[in-house]
Amino acid sequence: MMSPIVFPRGQCNLMEPGNDTRISEFLLLGFSDGPELQPLVFGLFLSMYLITVFGNLLILLAISSDSRLHTPMYFFLANLSFVDICFTSTTVPKMLWNIQTQSKVITYEDCITQVNFFIIFSGLDICLLAIMAYDRFVAICHPLQYTVIMSPWLCALLVLVSWITSVLHSLLQTSMVLRLSFYTGLEIPHFSCELNQMIQLACSDTFLNNLVMYFAAILVGGSPFIGILYSYSKILSSIRGISSAQGKYKAFSTCASHLSVVSLFYCTGLGVYLSSAATQGSHSSATASVMYTVVTPMLNPFIYSLRNKDIKGALKRFSAMAVRKGPIVLRLKNFPGLQASKS
């Protein structure tokens, strides 16, 4: 296999027809260059990834196995758990593979693919959190009309629109990146490819890319956030109108878990972009990105299971059912052929 051609950092690859020196790969620097720390980083991220996948799978299994949780609120939660698994799986497995093989290389195609799915699942996270806020708004402010408003048809439509919006947004952003030219021998100071990092590393004019990126961030990220703020302003207003303290506590407890997840998601997301803008290319930006892409999806199942009696009850029933059914005992009567041979 021929080794890749490496040019000085100052040379721009214009990707003109007939040019054989097209950009083919990037280098993901990750967190530490010290080989003695790599096993620790590998173990830490592997543990967090397994906890994320296992925790969100438990939420999915608990909701699907318990008919009492077949409601709009838990339908959206199941979708959020699925998206969180996909969101983390977009970046962490590649990083674990690079650590294990002691390689920092990611191909240009893989980097674009990673950016594409990262945008899709982060957008879905934002949309689903806004939909869940609207669901809580209807449940608390219009309880008598809840089943009519939040019909199965509307719930499915809201999720479908979220997917379509996120996919179209991702296609727009990645198509804009494909038109850029890059320096050869590029180093990305992160453990994964991110849209803003790729735009910063381009050597061609990125004005239009930055314009589209920030406009889309305001539209796709800001609009759901405004919806969340509006929903919770109405919820708080409705809770203040409840006379009894027990009624106020019961109403607030139904949305406490969601409010915790929203706060965690938006605070860590804001931290990513603030640290990226303040300290470009530093490890603090990569650490903030970890909080956003790995830690938040890992904590979501704990927040919902620890603060939600319905989920805790469903998990207990699911565990009891699993214990009763397994392990599977192979009985001789299930194998007529063996019975015949024995006789």
From TrEMBL:
Domain G-protein coupled receptors family 1 profile: 55-304
Subcellular location: Cell membrane
Gene Ontology cellular component terms for the protein in this record: plasma membrane
Single GO MF descriptor: olfactory receptor activity
InterPro entries, per database record: GPCR_Rhodpsn (IPR000276), GPCR_Rhodpsn_7TM (IPR017452), Olfact_rcpt (IPR000725)
Record membrane topology: Multi-pass membrane protein
Keywords for this protein: Cell membrane, G-protein coupled receptor, Membrane, Olfaction, Receptor, Sensory transduction, Transducer, Transmembrane, Transmembrane helix
Superkingdom, natural source: Eukaryota
Residues that span the membrane, as ranges: 40-61, 73-92, 112-134, 146-172, 211-230, 251-274, 286-306
Entry's family note: Belongs to the G-protein coupled receptor 1 family.
Function of the molecule: Putative odorant or sperm cell receptor.
Designated name of the protein: Olfactory receptor
Organism of provenance: Panthera pardus (Leopard)
Taxonomic lineage of the native organism: Eukaryota, Metazoa, Chordata, Craniata, Vertebrata
This protein's encoding gene: LOC128775527
